[in-house]
Specification:
Elements lengths: L16 H11 L8 E4 L9 H16 L3 E6 L9 H13 L8 E3 L4 H13 L3 E4 L3 H8 L16 H13 L8 E4 L14 E5 L13 E3 L1 H12 L3 E5 L6 H11 L5 E5 L3 E2 L6 H9 L14 H7 L3 H11 L7 E2 L1 H15 L1 E3 L1 E2 L2 E6 L7 E7 L9 E7 L1 E5 L19 E4 L3 E10 L5 E9 L9 E2 L1 E3 L4 E8 L26 E8 L11 E4 L3 E5 L10 E7 L3 H6 L1
Parallel strand pairs: 1-2, 2-3, 8-9, 10-11, 12-25, 14-20, 18-21, 23-27
Antiparallel strand pairs: 4-5, 5-6, 6-7, 13-24, 14-17, 15-16, 17-22, 18-19, 19-20, 23-24, 25-26, 26-27
Helix pairs in contact: 2-11, 7-8, 11-12
The structure holds one RNA strand.
RNA sequence: UGGGGAAUAGUGUAACGGUAGCACUCCGGACUCUGACUCCGUCAGUCUAGGUUCAAAUCCUAGUUCCCCAGCCA
């Protein structure tokens, strides 16, 4: 184990409960060789941020302990699974930074072995072919408070079981007509132990094994053995599988094979969104979102397109920790993680979302002043770019107030404000239309850079600005817990009607070449991502990843 | 009503019989050519009731609340 540090006793790093279990096992010389984890998705949907937690956990543990990490598809149900999902999941796992090296596996790779083991269990009198229909089986199973009854087929002779199982495999029976069941205990208080189904008949085409099989193993009969075959030491899964652990253990014991240790943790919940595959699918099929990669979705593909980075999601998963308590993480944590990462990475640019025209009266029409602006104020190596300053410019309408409170540091009649990187302007005149709306400001420009003024605002040249589509995203749901609905309503009723606002914004001209897939901070506004799907050459589309923190709105309210 | 889990500031997460710590949020302040970033500070917690002990978040007893399980889904 660890030896005492020579001097200057260091505080031990805080360990989560899984690390503590592993540490203890290591200390007790169990699983000593090398720890080995895996991420076992079913290829029947897209990955979401909850899966990212599991991937980061499993891969992180392997890294931390110098062990290995596998990617294994749990593809035991051909009627729900598709190659398309396999491809997207692999891409997302890779993007998340988890490296399975050459260890990409499929539970379907083990079908032959699983079948042989089933025969072994039949021969040992630990499995039998059952003729009960699904409805009958439900009846025989009993309830939470009432024990089940033995299947009439439970005591079938071994040779008869063997023959029937062979016929099941040979395709002689229709779907659902028979099952192979483990013979455990119909009176067990844990319902998973009441003679669970090991094999069911499904004459279905499997995305990998084709039509080789018409019987498919169940999750319970597959998962632990797959872990075992791969030499997994810690089979980490979510809490709902806690009730399955006795079964997991039973199969490994009955088969006498390497017995990985299953450990369960609480899945991730986030405020203002939904996470279940079913609900996400519903959002897509009912067109509440544009697809699985809609930037409002908590899917990895959605987050990627929103502008989240691998590093930000890793940091987030690290920060939320892991425990057995069902918790809900505030969405603000996710946003905070991207801000932190993007603050360092994203180049800066100026963009005006909601414009107000200013005429700089002391500049000539047609005159252009080249303004040098740093691409990243904290990182000189990022270089400079040029902004054209012209007589007519656009500023954010919010940055001017006629009757401004004392704490308003921006532009007001007669007041001064700094134009980012350019100089200082003074508001001489407010022009209004017949209805009294401010339509234009007339200001004088002072190129002095040294004077101090309290406020700095962003701007673009009216003549030279690039018009571009900017998508302002907000929470998918209008309430923290969208599942919390009154009788007769669903989470759909809690969707945020303003989760997407698409506008035409005015951007500094250098952005015309913005490359799809890059992150940019529009100063004072937020982080934006050049949409990789809808951007076309010279016509970038920007997705707002996250706003900047804004302490002004707090003052205002 | 059976079985399996879980309860620590607003939200997460540590402390493993010996000063309840950390992060985010909130609030206050400093700095600032982004009201950003950064920095500093404040507020705030052991589900309840008993018990063991010099000492309990931790051990014991009883209770409360929440989650999961009755698919030939995973």
């Amino acid at each position: 184990m660890t030896s005492d540090p020579p001097s200057g006793e260091e505080k031990p790093a805080s360990r989560n409960f899984i690390e503590q279990i592993i540490d203890a096992d290591l200390a007790a010389a169990k699983n000593v060789d090398q720890i080995h984890t895996r991420f076992p998705p079913e290829p029947n949907g897209y990955l979401h941020i909850g899966h990212a937690k599991s991937i980061c956990l499993n891969y992180g543990l392997a890294q931390q302990y110098g062990g290995k990490f596998n990617l294994r598809f749990d593809d035991t149900n051909p009627t729900r699974e598709e190659q398309e999902y396999v491809d997207s999941i692999m891409d997302d796992v890779r993007w998340l930074g988890a490296n399975w090296e050459d260890r990409l596996f499929f539970a379907s790779d083990y079908f032959e072995q699983l079948h042989d083991w089933a025969v072994k269990l039949i021969k040992a009198g630990k499995a039998f072919v059952c003729d009960l229909t699904a409805d009958e089986m439900r009846e025989y199973r009993g309830t939470l408070v009432k024990p089940g009854k033995n299947s009439p087929d439970r005591d079938r002779r071994v040779d008869e079981n063997l023959e029937l199982f062979a016929k099941m495999k040979a395709g002689e029976f229709p779907d659902g007509s028979r099952t192979l069941r483990a013979k455990i205990d119909m009176a067990a208080p844990n319902i998973n132990l009441r003679d669970p189904v090991m094999y069911r008949i499904k004459h279905a085409h499997h995305h990998r094994t084709g039509d080789t099989w018409c019987i498919y193993p169940s999750y319970d009969y597959t998962h632990g053995q797959s872990d075992s075959i791969e030499g997994i030491t810690y089979s980490i899964c979510t809490l709902e599988f806690e009730n399955h652990r006795p079964l997991y253990d039973w199969f490994c014991e009955a088969l006498g094979i390497h017995h990985p240790r299953q450990i369960e943790f609480a899945r991730l919940n986030l405020t203002y969104t939904v996470m279940s595959k079913r609900k996400l699918l519903q959002l897509v099929t009912e067109k509440h979102v544009s697809g699985w990669d809609d930037p409002r979705m908590p899917t990895i593909r959605g987050l990627r397109r929103r502008g989240y980075t691998t590093e930000s999601i890793q940091a987030f998963c690290e920060r939320i920790g892991v425990a057995k308590f069902n918790s809900t993480i505030d969405m603000a944590w996710l946003e905070d993680a991207v801000r932190e990462d993007l603050n360092e990475k994203a180049f800066r640019a100026l963009a005006v979302l909601n414009p107000l025209k200013i005429v700089l009266t002391n500049l000539e029409p047609g005159q252009t002043i080249d303004i040098e602006a740093p691409n990243h104020p904290q990182n000189p190596e990022a270089g400079m770019r040029t902004l054209p300053l012209t007589r007519e410019i656009l500023i954010e309408a919010d940055d001017f107030m006629e009757d401004a409170p004392k704490k308003f540091f921006r532009l007001r009649p007669g007041g001064e404000v700094r134009l980012r990187c350019a100089g200082i302007i003074k508001c001489d005149e407010v022009v209004k239309d017949a209805a009294g709306n401010v339509t234009e400001l007339r200001c004088t420009f002072d190129p002095d850079h040294a004077r101090k003024v309290k406020g700095t605002i962003h701007w673009v040249s009216a003549a030279r600005a690039l018009s571009a589509e900017v998508r302002l995203y907000d929470h998918l749901c209008a309430v923290e817990n969208p599942e919390d609905v009154p009788e007769g309503k669903t989470f759909i009723d809690n969707l945020n009607p303003n989760s997407l606002q698409s506008i035409t914004a005015h951007l500094e001209p250098s952005l015309v070449d913005a490359i799809p897939g890059t992150h940019i901070q529009f100063e004072r506004l937020g982080y934006f991502f050049v949409d990789p799907v809808d951007s076309t050459p010279n016509k970038p589309v920007f997705n707002r990843t996250a706003t900047l923190r804004d302490s002004w709105t707090k003052v205002k309210n």
